[in-house]
RNA sequence: GCGGGUGUAGCUCAGUCGGUUAGAGCGCCAGAUUGUGGCUCUGGAGGUCGCGCGUUCAAUUCGCGUCACUCGCCCCA
Protein backbone atom coordinates (compact mmCIF):
# COMPACT_ATOMS: atom_id res chain seq x y z
CA UNK A 1 0.00 0.00 0.00
CA UNK A 2 1.60 3.26 -1.06
CA UNK A 3 1.99 5.97 1.53
CA UNK A 4 -0.27 8.29 -0.39
CA UNK A 5 -3.88 8.03 0.58
CA UNK A 6 -7.13 9.85 -0.04
CA UNK A 7 -8.58 11.77 2.89
CA UNK A 8 -10.74 9.61 5.09
CA UNK A 9 -14.32 9.43 3.93
CA UNK A 10 -13.53 10.61 0.41
CA UNK A 11 -13.64 8.48 -2.70
CA UNK A 12 -12.09 8.73 -6.11
CA UNK A 13 -14.70 8.09 -8.75
CA UNK A 14 -13.81 6.45 -12.04
CA UNK A 15 -14.88 3.77 -14.47
CA UNK A 16 -18.13 1.97 -13.79
CA UNK A 17 -18.73 3.70 -10.49
CA UNK A 18 -18.50 7.17 -11.99
CA UNK A 19 -20.71 6.05 -14.86
CA UNK A 20 -23.32 4.93 -12.33
CA UNK A 21 -23.18 8.34 -10.65
CA UNK A 22 -23.55 10.12 -13.97
CA UNK A 23 -26.43 7.88 -14.88
CA UNK A 24 -28.22 8.67 -11.61
CA UNK A 25 -27.71 12.40 -12.09
CA UNK A 26 -28.69 12.41 -15.74
CA UNK A 27 -31.83 10.39 -15.06
CA UNK A 28 -32.91 12.67 -12.23
CA UNK A 29 -32.18 15.78 -14.28
CA UNK A 30 -34.29 14.49 -17.14
CA UNK A 31 -37.23 13.68 -14.86
CA UNK A 32 -36.93 17.09 -13.21
CA UNK A 33 -36.96 18.73 -16.64
CA UNK A 34 -40.20 16.91 -17.43
CA UNK A 35 -41.67 18.52 -14.33
CA UNK A 36 -40.57 22.00 -15.38
CA UNK A 37 -37.53 22.30 -13.15
CA UNK A 38 -34.49 24.33 -14.14
CA UNK A 39 -31.00 23.52 -12.89
CA UNK A 40 -29.06 25.62 -10.41
CA UNK A 41 -25.47 25.34 -9.24
CA UNK A 42 -24.45 27.19 -6.10
CA UNK A 43 -21.00 27.42 -4.47
CA UNK A 44 -19.89 24.50 -2.35
CA UNK A 45 -19.16 26.87 0.51
CA UNK A 46 -21.13 29.65 2.15
CA UNK A 47 -20.71 31.92 5.12
CA UNK A 48 -21.03 29.69 8.17
CA UNK A 49 -24.03 31.70 9.35
CA UNK A 50 -26.14 30.48 6.44
CA UNK A 51 -25.96 26.91 7.67
CA UNK A 52 -25.82 27.68 11.38
CA UNK A 53 -29.01 29.73 11.19
CA UNK A 54 -30.88 27.41 8.88
CA UNK A 55 -30.09 24.15 10.61
CA UNK A 56 -30.57 25.36 14.17
CA UNK A 57 -27.83 25.27 16.78
CA UNK A 58 -29.10 22.08 18.32
CA UNK A 59 -28.80 19.86 15.27
CA UNK A 60 -25.85 17.52 15.16
CA UNK A 61 -24.94 18.74 11.74
CA UNK A 62 -24.15 22.15 13.15
CA UNK A 63 -22.84 20.91 16.47
CA UNK A 64 -20.22 18.50 15.20
CA UNK A 65 -20.41 17.69 11.52
CA UNK A 66 -19.61 20.88 9.64
CA UNK A 67 -16.37 21.52 7.83
CA UNK A 68 -15.83 25.08 9.02
CA UNK A 69 -12.71 27.17 8.42
CA UNK A 70 -11.56 30.75 8.33
CA UNK A 71 -10.43 32.23 5.05
CA UNK A 72 -7.53 34.66 4.77
CA UNK A 73 -9.82 37.58 5.35
CA UNK A 74 -10.96 36.13 8.66
CA UNK A 75 -14.44 35.16 7.43
CA UNK A 76 -15.88 31.94 8.79
CA UNK A 77 -16.83 29.73 5.87
CA UNK A 78 -18.38 26.26 5.80
CA UNK A 79 -18.41 23.53 3.18
CA UNK A 80 -22.08 22.90 2.52
CA UNK A 81 -23.50 19.96 4.51
CA UNK A 82 -26.68 20.14 2.43
CA UNK A 83 -27.90 22.39 -0.33
CA UNK A 84 -31.32 23.75 0.56
CA UNK A 85 -29.95 26.69 2.52
CA UNK A 86 -27.54 27.56 -0.28
CA UNK A 87 -30.26 27.45 -2.92
CA UNK A 88 -32.56 29.64 -0.84
CA UNK A 89 -29.71 32.06 -0.23
CA UNK A 90 -28.95 32.19 -3.97
CA UNK A 91 -32.57 32.87 -4.82
CA UNK A 92 -32.81 35.64 -2.25
CA UNK A 93 -29.51 37.32 -2.98
CA UNK A 94 -29.97 37.03 -6.75
CA UNK A 95 -33.55 38.22 -6.71
CA UNK A 96 -34.51 35.16 -8.72
CA UNK A 97 -38.04 34.86 -7.42
CA UNK A 98 -39.69 37.23 -9.88
CA UNK A 99 -42.70 35.11 -10.74
CA UNK A 100 -43.28 32.33 -8.28
CA UNK A 101 -43.08 29.45 -8.11
CA UNK A 102 -39.44 28.83 -8.90
CA UNK A 103 -38.61 25.18 -9.48
CA UNK A 104 -34.97 24.16 -9.20
CA UNK A 105 -32.91 21.01 -9.54
CA UNK A 106 -29.32 20.56 -8.38
CA UNK A 107 -26.59 17.95 -8.14
CA UNK A 108 -23.24 18.17 -6.45
CA UNK A 109 -20.93 17.32 -3.56
CA UNK A 110 -21.81 17.88 0.11
CA UNK A 111 -19.54 17.62 3.14
CA UNK A 112 -20.11 16.29 6.63
CA UNK A 113 -17.49 15.38 9.16
CA UNK A 114 -18.86 12.01 10.22
CA UNK A 115 -17.67 8.50 10.81
CA UNK A 116 -17.76 6.91 7.35
CA UNK A 117 -20.02 3.96 6.77
CA UNK A 118 -21.54 2.18 3.83
CA UNK A 119 -23.50 4.80 1.90
CA UNK A 120 -22.16 7.56 4.12
CA UNK A 121 -19.05 9.54 3.29
CA UNK A 122 -17.48 12.81 4.33
CA UNK A 123 -17.62 14.10 0.80
CA UNK A 124 -20.74 12.65 -0.73
CA UNK A 125 -23.04 13.68 -3.53
CA UNK A 126 -26.65 14.65 -3.59
CA UNK A 127 -29.29 15.45 -6.12
CA UNK A 128 -32.26 17.46 -5.02
CA UNK A 129 -35.14 19.68 -6.00
CA UNK A 130 -36.68 22.75 -4.42
CA UNK A 131 -39.92 24.58 -5.20
CA UNK A 132 -39.79 28.11 -3.85
CA UNK A 133 -42.58 30.61 -3.43
CA UNK A 134 -45.37 28.06 -3.43
CA UNK A 135 -47.52 27.63 -0.32
CA UNK A 136 -49.94 25.25 -2.02
CA UNK A 137 -50.12 21.54 -1.16
CA UNK A 138 -50.05 20.85 -4.90
CA UNK A 139 -46.35 21.70 -4.79
CA UNK A 140 -45.75 19.07 -2.12
CA UNK A 141 -47.57 16.52 -4.25
CA UNK A 142 -45.60 17.41 -7.36
CA UNK A 143 -42.32 17.16 -5.52
CA UNK A 144 -43.14 13.73 -4.10
CA UNK A 145 -44.33 12.50 -7.49
CA UNK A 146 -41.09 13.72 -9.04
CA UNK A 147 -39.07 11.85 -6.45
CA UNK A 148 -41.01 8.69 -7.04
CA UNK A 149 -40.51 8.91 -10.78
CA UNK A 150 -36.77 9.34 -10.33
CA UNK A 151 -36.57 6.19 -8.24
CA UNK A 152 -38.76 4.32 -10.69
CA UNK A 153 -36.70 5.28 -13.70
CA UNK A 154 -33.58 4.22 -11.89
CA UNK A 155 -35.21 0.85 -11.28
CA UNK A 156 -35.21 1.38 -7.52
CA UNK A 157 -38.49 -0.13 -6.46
CA UNK A 158 -37.66 -3.33 -4.61
CA UNK A 159 -38.03 -2.90 -0.87
CA UNK A 160 -38.82 0.80 -1.28
CA UNK A 161 -41.69 2.42 0.56
CA UNK A 162 -42.89 5.99 0.92
CA UNK A 163 -43.61 7.22 4.40
CA UNK A 164 -45.25 10.52 5.09
CA UNK A 165 -46.10 12.70 8.04
CA UNK A 166 -46.93 16.27 8.90
CA UNK A 167 -45.27 18.52 11.42
CA UNK A 168 -47.96 21.17 10.99
CA UNK A 169 -47.39 24.89 10.88
CA UNK A 170 -45.21 26.54 13.56
CA UNK A 171 -48.17 26.97 15.91
CA UNK A 172 -49.17 23.30 15.63
CA UNK A 173 -45.60 22.12 15.89
CA UNK A 174 -45.08 24.17 19.05
CA UNK A 175 -48.30 22.85 20.57
CA UNK A 176 -47.35 19.27 19.79
CA UNK A 177 -43.88 19.74 21.13
CA UNK A 178 -45.30 20.99 24.43
CA UNK A 179 -47.76 18.09 24.64
CA UNK A 180 -45.08 15.56 23.82
CA UNK A 181 -42.62 16.96 26.35
CA UNK A 182 -45.30 16.90 29.02
CA UNK A 183 -45.98 13.22 28.27
CA UNK A 184 -42.30 12.26 28.11
CA UNK A 185 -41.51 14.09 31.36
CA UNK A 186 -43.92 11.70 33.02
CA UNK A 187 -41.97 8.69 31.71
CA UNK A 188 -38.45 9.92 32.21
CA UNK A 189 -37.48 6.85 34.15
CA UNK A 190 -38.01 4.60 31.14
CA UNK A 191 -36.16 6.74 28.60
CA UNK A 192 -32.64 6.03 27.37
CA UNK A 193 -29.79 8.35 28.22
CA UNK A 194 -29.69 9.62 24.63
CA UNK A 195 -33.35 10.45 24.71
CA UNK A 196 -33.07 12.25 28.02
CA UNK A 197 -30.64 14.71 26.48
CA UNK A 198 -32.84 15.01 23.40
CA UNK A 199 -35.77 15.84 25.66
CA UNK A 200 -34.14 19.17 26.36
CA UNK A 201 -33.29 20.36 22.88
CA UNK A 202 -34.95 18.16 20.27
CA UNK A 203 -37.82 16.15 21.79
CA UNK A 204 -39.41 15.27 18.42
CA UNK A 205 -36.31 13.24 17.66
CA UNK A 206 -37.15 10.85 20.48
CA UNK A 207 -40.02 9.61 18.32
CA UNK A 208 -37.71 7.80 15.91
CA UNK A 209 -35.34 6.41 18.54
CA UNK A 210 -34.21 2.84 17.94
CA UNK A 211 -33.89 2.09 21.64
CA UNK A 212 -36.35 -0.60 22.75
CA UNK A 213 -37.24 1.06 26.03
CA UNK A 214 -37.88 4.32 24.22
CA UNK A 215 -40.09 2.60 21.70
CA UNK A 216 -42.36 1.28 24.41
CA UNK A 217 -42.81 4.79 25.74
CA UNK A 218 -43.29 6.21 22.27
CA UNK A 219 -45.95 3.68 21.37
CA UNK A 220 -48.27 5.32 23.90
CA UNK A 221 -47.23 8.88 23.14
CA UNK A 222 -49.71 11.46 21.92
CA UNK A 223 -49.75 11.86 18.15
CA UNK A 224 -49.46 15.12 16.31
CA UNK A 225 -52.92 14.92 14.75
CA UNK A 226 -54.48 16.01 18.04
CA UNK A 227 -52.28 19.09 18.13
CA UNK A 228 -52.87 20.25 14.55
CA UNK A 229 -54.84 23.42 14.02
CA UNK A 230 -57.44 23.49 11.28
CA UNK A 231 -55.22 25.00 8.61
CA UNK A 232 -52.53 22.38 9.19
CA UNK A 233 -55.05 19.57 9.15
CA UNK A 234 -56.54 20.83 5.86
CA UNK A 235 -53.12 21.20 4.32
CA UNK A 236 -52.09 17.66 5.13
CA UNK A 237 -55.41 16.27 3.95
CA UNK A 238 -54.90 18.03 0.61
CA UNK A 239 -51.44 16.49 0.23
CA UNK A 240 -52.76 13.03 1.02
CA UNK A 241 -55.59 13.43 -1.43
CA UNK A 242 -53.28 14.72 -4.11
CA UNK A 243 -51.04 11.69 -3.76
CA UNK A 244 -54.03 9.35 -3.81
CA UNK A 245 -55.26 10.98 -7.03
CA UNK A 246 -51.99 10.10 -8.69
CA UNK A 247 -52.08 6.58 -7.35
CA UNK A 248 -48.97 7.11 -5.25
CA UNK A 249 -49.08 4.71 -2.34
CA UNK A 250 -47.74 5.89 0.97
CA UNK A 251 -47.98 4.92 4.59
CA UNK A 252 -48.57 7.35 7.40
CA UNK A 253 -45.73 7.33 9.88
CA UNK A 254 -46.51 9.41 12.95
CA UNK A 255 -42.94 9.03 14.10
CA UNK A 256 -41.33 10.41 10.98
CA UNK A 257 -39.76 13.70 12.02
CA UNK A 258 -37.01 15.86 10.64
CA UNK A 259 -33.93 16.79 12.56
CA UNK A 260 -33.75 20.18 10.93
CA UNK A 261 -35.70 22.98 12.54
CA UNK A 262 -36.99 24.71 9.45
CA UNK A 263 -39.27 21.91 8.34
CA UNK A 264 -43.02 22.53 8.56
CA UNK A 265 -46.04 20.59 7.37
CA UNK A 266 -45.13 17.73 5.05
CA UNK A 267 -42.25 15.40 5.83
CA UNK A 268 -41.64 12.35 3.68
CA UNK A 269 -39.06 9.69 3.15
CA UNK A 270 -38.55 6.94 0.62
CA UNK A 271 -36.78 4.17 2.51
CA UNK A 272 -35.13 1.01 1.30
CA UNK A 273 -34.68 -2.21 3.19
CA UNK A 274 -31.44 -2.90 1.34
CA UNK A 275 -29.16 -0.23 2.74
CA UNK A 276 -28.39 -1.44 6.25
CA UNK A 277 -28.50 1.33 8.82
CA UNK A 278 -28.83 4.02 6.16
CA UNK A 279 -32.39 3.30 5.11
CA UNK A 280 -33.36 6.72 3.77
CA UNK A 281 -32.79 6.97 0.05
CA UNK A 282 -34.73 10.11 -0.83
CA UNK A 283 -36.21 12.42 1.76
CA UNK A 284 -37.59 15.90 2.09
CA UNK A 285 -40.44 18.08 3.09
CA UNK A 286 -41.70 21.59 3.44
CA UNK A 287 -39.59 24.35 4.96
CA UNK A 288 -41.68 27.50 5.04
CA UNK A 289 -39.56 29.02 7.81
CA UNK A 290 -36.13 28.64 6.25
CA UNK A 291 -35.86 31.84 4.26
CA UNK A 292 -36.74 33.98 7.27
CA UNK A 293 -34.34 32.02 9.42
CA UNK A 294 -31.37 32.94 7.24
CA UNK A 295 -32.42 36.57 6.99
CA UNK A 296 -34.48 36.50 3.80
CA UNK A 297 -38.11 37.39 3.19
CA UNK A 298 -41.01 35.06 3.88
CA UNK A 299 -40.74 32.43 1.20
CA UNK A 300 -42.40 29.06 1.43
CA UNK A 301 -40.52 26.09 0.03
CA UNK A 302 -40.72 22.36 -0.41
CA UNK A 303 -38.18 19.90 -1.76
CA UNK A 304 -36.14 16.76 -1.27
CA UNK A 305 -32.60 15.50 -1.46
CA UNK A 306 -31.20 12.08 -2.26
CA UNK A 307 -27.73 10.65 -1.85
CA UNK A 308 -26.20 9.70 -5.16
CA UNK A 309 -23.97 7.05 -3.56
CA UNK A 310 -27.00 5.37 -2.06
CA UNK A 311 -28.98 5.57 -5.29
CA UNK A 312 -26.01 4.24 -7.23
CA UNK A 313 -25.80 1.21 -4.95
CA UNK A 314 -29.44 0.37 -5.58
CA UNK A 315 -29.79 1.18 -9.24
CA UNK A 316 -29.48 -1.33 -12.04
CA UNK A 317 -26.47 -1.18 -14.35
CA UNK A 318 -26.45 1.96 -16.47
CA UNK A 319 -27.00 1.55 -20.19
CA UNK A 320 -23.86 0.26 -21.91
CA UNK A 321 -21.59 2.61 -23.79
CA UNK A 322 -21.79 2.59 -27.57
CA UNK A 323 -19.33 0.03 -28.89
CA UNK A 324 -16.31 1.52 -30.63
CA UNK A 325 -14.89 0.90 -34.07
CA UNK A 326 -11.25 -0.15 -34.08
CA UNK A 327 -9.03 0.97 -36.91
CA UNK A 328 -6.21 -1.51 -37.41
CA UNK A 329 -3.35 -0.68 -39.76
CA UNK A 330 -1.38 -3.60 -41.14
CA UNK A 331 2.17 -2.77 -41.99
CA UNK A 332 4.09 0.46 -41.56
CA UNK A 333 2.85 1.82 -44.87
CA UNK A 334 -0.72 1.92 -43.60
CA UNK A 335 -0.08 3.81 -40.34
CA UNK A 336 -0.56 7.22 -41.86
CA UNK A 337 -3.68 6.23 -43.79
CA UNK A 338 -5.12 4.69 -40.60
CA UNK A 339 -4.63 7.89 -38.64
CA UNK A 340 -6.35 9.92 -41.32
CA UNK A 341 -9.22 7.43 -41.52
CA UNK A 342 -9.70 7.48 -37.71
CA UNK A 343 -9.62 11.28 -37.79
CA UNK A 344 -12.35 11.43 -40.41
CA UNK A 345 -14.55 8.84 -38.74
CA UNK A 346 -14.28 10.70 -35.43
CA UNK A 347 -15.28 13.94 -37.08
CA UNK A 348 -18.28 12.09 -38.44
CA UNK A 349 -19.27 11.25 -34.86
CA UNK A 350 -18.07 7.66 -34.53
CA UNK A 351 -16.32 6.38 -31.45
CA UNK A 352 -13.01 5.20 -32.86
CA UNK A 353 -10.10 3.39 -31.23
CA UNK A 354 -6.69 3.49 -32.86
CA UNK A 355 -3.74 2.09 -30.93
CA UNK A 356 -0.54 4.10 -30.98
CA UNK A 357 1.59 1.05 -31.67
CA UNK A 358 1.59 -2.72 -31.93
CA UNK A 359 1.41 -5.56 -34.35
CA UNK A 360 -1.93 -6.34 -36.00
CA UNK A 361 -2.51 -9.21 -33.59
CA UNK A 362 -1.96 -7.04 -30.55
CA UNK A 363 -4.17 -4.34 -31.94
CA UNK A 364 -6.94 -6.82 -32.68
CA UNK A 365 -6.63 -8.14 -29.16
CA UNK A 366 -6.92 -4.64 -27.82
CA UNK A 367 -9.96 -4.00 -30.02
CA UNK A 368 -11.53 -7.11 -28.56
CA UNK A 369 -10.92 -5.95 -25.00
CA UNK A 370 -12.39 -2.57 -25.81
CA UNK A 371 -15.53 -4.43 -26.84
CA UNK A 372 -15.28 -3.03 -30.34
CA UNK A 373 -18.11 -3.90 -32.71
CA UNK A 374 -16.07 -3.59 -35.89
CA UNK A 375 -12.45 -3.65 -36.92
CA UNK A 376 -11.54 -1.64 -39.98
CA UNK A 377 -8.44 -3.22 -41.48
CA UNK A 378 -6.20 -1.22 -43.71
CA UNK A 379 -3.03 -2.64 -45.25
CA UNK A 380 -1.20 -2.81 -48.52
CA UNK A 381 -3.96 -4.74 -50.26
CA UNK A 382 -6.55 -2.21 -49.20
CA UNK A 383 -4.35 0.71 -50.13
CA UNK A 384 -3.81 -0.63 -53.64
CA UNK A 385 -7.49 -1.58 -54.06
CA UNK A 386 -8.67 1.71 -52.65
CA UNK A 387 -11.11 -0.01 -50.26
CA UNK A 388 -11.15 -1.19 -46.66
CA UNK A 389 -11.75 -4.51 -44.98
CA UNK A 390 -14.56 -4.34 -42.46
CA UNK A 391 -14.45 -7.18 -39.96
CA UNK A 392 -17.47 -8.01 -37.84
CA UNK A 393 -15.91 -8.85 -34.48
CA UNK A 394 -18.96 -10.76 -33.28
CA UNK A 395 -19.15 -13.14 -36.24
CA UNK A 396 -15.67 -12.91 -37.71
CA UNK A 397 -17.09 -12.18 -41.17
CA UNK A 398 -15.20 -9.76 -43.38
CA UNK A 399 -16.13 -7.74 -46.40
CA UNK A 400 -14.59 -5.07 -48.57
CA UNK A 401 -16.14 -1.63 -48.18
CA UNK A 402 -15.48 1.46 -50.24
CA UNK A 403 -13.86 4.07 -48.11
CA UNK A 404 -16.47 6.65 -49.01
CA UNK A 405 -19.28 4.36 -47.86
CA UNK A 406 -17.76 3.36 -44.53
CA UNK A 407 -19.09 6.13 -42.29
CA UNK A 408 -22.66 5.70 -43.49
CA UNK A 409 -22.38 1.96 -43.20
CA UNK A 410 -21.26 2.20 -39.55
CA UNK A 411 -23.92 4.79 -38.73
CA UNK A 412 -26.67 2.56 -40.19
CA UNK A 413 -25.47 -0.32 -38.08
CA UNK A 414 -25.40 1.78 -34.92
CA UNK A 415 -28.95 2.98 -35.59
CA UNK A 416 -30.13 -0.61 -36.01
CA UNK A 417 -28.76 -1.83 -32.71
CA UNK A 418 -30.30 0.98 -30.69
C1' G B 1 -17.68 10.95 18.86
C1' C B 2 -18.72 5.42 20.95
C1' G B 3 -18.55 -0.24 20.40
C1' G B 4 -17.44 -4.88 17.28
C1' G B 5 -15.02 -7.18 12.83
C1' U B 6 -11.38 -7.10 8.88
C1' G B 7 -6.53 -5.61 6.41
C1' U B 8 -1.57 -10.97 2.11
C1' A B 9 -0.44 -9.31 -5.98
C1' G B 10 -4.73 -4.72 -9.98
C1' C B 11 -9.32 -8.10 -8.20
C1' U B 12 -11.27 -12.53 -5.24
C1' C B 13 -8.84 -15.29 -1.65
C1' A B 14 -5.41 -19.48 0.34
C1' G B 15 -1.23 -19.91 3.72
C1' U B 16 2.45 -19.32 7.74
C1' C B 17 0.90 -23.72 15.51
C1' G B 18 7.10 -17.57 14.61
C1' G B 19 12.04 -20.23 10.61
C1' U B 20 15.55 -19.30 4.99
C1' U B 21 13.25 -17.99 -2.36
C1' A B 22 4.88 -16.06 0.39
C1' G B 23 0.91 -19.10 -3.24
C1' A B 24 -3.74 -19.96 -6.45
C1' G B 25 -7.61 -18.31 -9.76
C1' C B 26 -8.93 -14.12 -12.59
C1' G B 27 -6.64 -9.85 -14.85
C1' C B 28 -2.05 -7.75 -17.21
C1' C B 29 2.49 -8.35 -20.65
C1' A B 30 5.03 -11.47 -24.25
C1' G B 31 5.59 -15.82 -27.40
C1' A B 32 3.37 -20.05 -30.19
C1' U B 33 0.52 -16.97 -34.55
C1' U B 34 6.31 -11.89 -39.32
C1' G B 35 -2.04 -9.28 -42.74
C1' U B 36 -6.47 -10.69 -37.97
C1' G B 37 -9.11 -10.70 -31.73
C1' G B 38 -12.09 -14.32 -28.80
C1' C B 39 -10.30 -20.62 -27.47
C1' U B 40 -5.80 -23.28 -26.13
C1' C B 41 -0.67 -23.88 -24.64
C1' U B 42 4.09 -21.77 -22.83
C1' G B 43 6.74 -18.05 -20.39
C1' G B 44 6.95 -13.30 -17.69
C1' A B 45 6.05 -8.90 -14.75
C1' G B 46 3.70 -7.57 -10.30
C1' G B 47 3.98 -8.19 -2.84
C1' U B 48 8.82 -3.69 2.19
C1' C B 49 1.90 -9.75 3.89
C1' G B 50 -1.83 -1.67 5.63
C1' C B 51 1.88 1.39 8.57
C1' G B 52 4.84 2.06 13.22
C1' C B 53 6.79 0.35 17.73
C1' G B 54 7.62 -3.77 20.98
C1' U B 55 8.75 -9.13 22.31
C1' U B 56 12.28 -12.66 19.97
C1' C B 57 18.32 -15.46 17.57
C1' A B 58 14.30 -14.74 13.91
C1' A B 59 7.75 -11.31 13.00
C1' U B 60 3.72 -11.52 7.28
C1' U B 61 2.46 -14.79 11.77
C1' C B 62 2.51 -12.79 18.73
C1' G B 63 1.44 -7.89 21.65
C1' C B 64 0.43 -2.66 21.62
C1' G B 65 -0.51 1.64 18.86
C1' U B 66 -2.03 3.83 14.35
C1' C B 67 -4.41 4.30 9.56
C1' A B 68 -8.07 2.49 6.25
C1' C B 69 -12.29 -0.34 5.21
C1' U B 70 -16.63 -2.60 7.25
C1' C B 71 -21.10 -3.56 10.71
C1' G B 72 -23.89 -1.22 14.53
C1' C B 73 -24.88 3.44 17.78
C1' C B 74 -25.40 8.84 17.42
C1' C B 75 -27.09 11.62 13.36
C1' C B 76 -28.48 11.76 8.51
C1' A B 77 -29.12 11.46 2.02
Structural features, described:
The protein contains 15 helices and 16 strands. It folds into two domains: 15-169 and 229-314, Bira Bifunctional Protein, Domain 2 (BirA Bifunctional Protein, domain 2); 325-417, Rossmann fold (3-Layer(aba) Sandwich). The model has no long low-confidence stretch (mean pLDDT 90). It has 418 residues and is α+β, with helices and mostly antiparallel strands. Helix 1 runs antiparallel to helix 5 (137-153), helix 1 crosses helix 11 (308-314) and helix 5 runs parallel beside helix 9 (230-245). Strand 3 and strand 4 (76-79) form a beta hairpin. An eight-stranded mixed β-sheet has the order 1-5-6-11-10-9-7-8, with helices on both faces. Strands 13-12-14-15-16 form a five-stranded mixed β-sheet, with helices on both faces. It has a three-stranded antiparallel β-sheet with strand order 2-4-3. The structure holds one RNA strand of 77 nucleotides.
How many strands in all? 16
Mass-distribution shape: elongated
The tally of structural domains comes to 2
Q: Unreliable segments (pLDDT under 50, ≥5 consecutive)? A: none
CATH class call of the largest domain: Alpha Beta
* Rg: 28 Å
Structural class by helix and strand composition: alpha+beta
Task: Determine the number of helices (DSSP H or I, runs of at least 4 residues).
Answer: 15
Terminal Cα span: 43 Å
What's the CATH topology name of the largest domain?
Answer: BirA Bifunctional Protein, domain 2
Mean pLDDT across all amino acids: 90
CATH superfamily of the largest domain: Bira Bifunctional Protein, Domain 2
Beta content comes to 15-25%
Q: State the share of residues found in helices, binned by percent.
A: 25-40%
Strand order of the largest sheet: 1-5-6-11-10-9-7-8
- Give a quick account of the main beta sheet: strands, pairing sense, barrel closure: 8 strands, mixed
In CATH terms, what is the architecture of the largest domain?
Answer: 2-Layer Sandwich
Amino acid sequence: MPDIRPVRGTHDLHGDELRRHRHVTATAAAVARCHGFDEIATPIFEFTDIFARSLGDTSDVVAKEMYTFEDRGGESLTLRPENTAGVVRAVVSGGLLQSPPLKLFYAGPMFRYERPQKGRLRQFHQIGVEVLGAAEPAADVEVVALGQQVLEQLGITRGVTLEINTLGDPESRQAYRATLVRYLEGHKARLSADSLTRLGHNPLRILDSKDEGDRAVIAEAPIIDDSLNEASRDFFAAVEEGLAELGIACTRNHKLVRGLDYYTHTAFEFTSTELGAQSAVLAGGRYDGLSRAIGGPDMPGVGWAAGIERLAMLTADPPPLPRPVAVVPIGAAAESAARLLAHELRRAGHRVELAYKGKPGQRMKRADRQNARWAVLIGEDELSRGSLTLRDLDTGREQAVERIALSTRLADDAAQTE
